[in-house]
């Protein structure tokens, strides 16, 4: 039984040989037949790509951020080409088969707001086909924002997610909290995703905390993380961090506890637009438990609260306070901070 090798599935010469030696060796129109086979293989490759993306969309872990098109026809006018939903275009060539010109993103052109802007005018290049007013090229490996994340997960989670790694992590963490419960570990992963804080996925040691021309980065034995904050490390360089712990001191989930009915909760005036802080009894708020979240930047509290409220029971109060060195929240029935 003949097994078709996957490595040769996109090779038109090999596929033409499978049709029989007559078509490959003796048929006088083999050149045209080869071009036909090559075109069909290109269509099949795109169909495989579409199918693999559809299957990947089932999983919150594997869902792609963008749709990939192997080939995209481009029409350039005034050194620009507008391509709807385009995010990236790694390569541009003058023709699909036997290209004599290859242009690279970031060098020969840039992609911004669905527009490809060329450094040099393609009309001045004799290798590029044009009809006087329009130049014609082919984009390879284009990535398009087809809102996979929003259409497959965001809409039923009630999240206005964008096609980015941060929102993908948020959606995954929200699903984990909904399915497995809002445990301390799951809430920690959710807060880390919201605040864009790297979290150890196993025993990790930060071996380098440095800055290069792209900004700050952390390097561990497992990963290299790009960091957009100047927050200090959770543990010094060379000290082991356990799995599930944040690598930066941006937030801390202090406690998840039961509240007595007469527990006093202070709501700052900034939360209610009142002149003074207001003290409310937990029983009046119908709170049966309380989670305390310490934030390095308390301005992020509304964003955090919006996501936490999706996964926490309505009877659970959420208290925010500022994260400081050696910060501690009292175990008494008083909880000072922003309670909602």
Quick summary:
This protein has 340 residues and is α+β, with helices and mostly antiparallel strands.
Q: What's the total count of β strands?
A: 20
Average the pLDDT over all residues and give the rounded result: 84
Give me the number of helical elements: 8
Low-confidence stretches: 326-340
Our measurement of the CA-to-CA distance between the termini, rounded to an integer number of angstroms, reads 68 Å
Helix content: 25-40%
Instruction: Label the overall shape.
Output: elongated
> How does the helix and strand content classify structurally?
alpha+beta
Strand content: 25-35%
Radius of gyration (CA) equals 28 Å
How many domains make up the 3D coordinates?
4
Largest sheet properties = 6 strands, antiparallel
Order of helices and strands: HHHEEEEEEEEEHHHEEEEEEHEEHEEE
Structure description:
Helix 1 crosses helix 3 (30-56), helix 4 (148-157) runs parallel beside helix 5 (165-180) and helix 5 (165-180) runs antiparallel to helix 6 (184-194). A hairpin with a 4-residue loop joins strand 8 (129-130) and strand 9 (135-144). The longest helix has 27 residues, at 30-56. The chain folds into four domains: 6-56; 67-144, no CATH class; 198-246, no CATH class; 251-339, no CATH class. Strands 1, 3, 4, 5, 8 and 9 form a six-stranded antiparallel β-sheet that branches. The protein has a four-stranded antiparallel β-sheet with strand order 12-11-10-13, with no helix packed on it. A four-stranded mixed β-sheet has the order 14-17-18-20, covered by helices on one side. The protein is α+β, with helices and mostly antiparallel strands. It is built from eight helices and 20 strands.
